[in-house]
């Protein structure tokens, strides 16, 4: 179902007024994790004015260490939804556990499946049944075939609104957090009709590399970007080193709208 042979024309996934896979690349942005209401509402309004089309923010965070900030949970969902409502943007957040799915669906417009859950087949099937748009991140050691078969699980349950997200894979290099797989962007657009979003924040793990890799991903055919932004990255509770300050994103959004995108 995910292959171009089964469906030659590109799939466009609509989330609120945001079209992913249409003519103009979309930018999804926000902090790695929802931290508090004031920060979220202020940031959301600022992002909206820049031309960002969807707000992201993790409430349930899949952290490597159990001692790291785990997210605000249900409070985080409520704050994210409120920030999106005030700013006038649809919101996306990650679901890490099938037990949270109905709660996440109550607050979010799009569901994110994180890299660590790409092959959580029980979760994929449930997400396929709820009929919400889904952003399926690539597992950090998944081949393209494994990733597309994970998407197939969701489509096979009757949910066609799937967007793929390349977020980098593990390699031997330690300078960057992951290796952003530019090959995958071009290849997936050939193999599949599903839209693809690039996440150079997790793909690089380094703020100064995020925008150059974002440009490369769009050049390779990505339908949009997911970017982590934080008003004070040095104080972020998660992923500060890869988070852009809002001013840097504003400059980039100007560049994109000059190229006919963004709004
Ligand atoms: C995230 O988007 O904050 C996240 C945890 O991403 P990934 O699943 O790609 O690591
Ligand atoms: Mn993150």
Automatic annotation (TrEMBL):
Limits of the DAHP synthetase I/KDSA domain: 15-254
GO biological process annotation, one example: aromatic amino acid family biosynthetic process
Keywords in alphabetical order: Transferase
Keyword Ubl conjugation (UniProt): no
A molecular-function term among this protein's GO annotations: transferase activity
Gene3D superfamilies found in the cross-reference section: Aldolase class I (3.20.20.70)
InterPro entries the record matches: Aldolase_TIM, Class-I_DAHP_synthase, DAHP1/KDSA, DAHP_syn_2
PANTHER family: PHOSPHO-2-DEHYDRO-3-DEOXYHEPTONATE ALDOLASE, PROTEIN AROA(G)
Protein name: 3-deoxy-D-arabinoheptulosonate-7-phosphate synthase
